[in-house]
Amino acid sequence: MFGNMVFQTYLVAAGATSLREAIKLFWTFRVPWGWTYTAGTVADWVAQFSFGFYSLMLTSLLL
Description:
Helices cover 65% and strands 0% of the residues.
């Protein structure tokens, strides 16, 4: 699944004519992050890993 996501990301980026266009494509969708984390609930590394994993899954969903 990870390899498929990397390949799909490559295909999207290859179709873009510039880096600015590729970044704008991924910033089109506004995601509400404010409600997701309350400081001190879990260890900092757990929160960072969770946000990274969630953003990875969200990116693969959007692709």
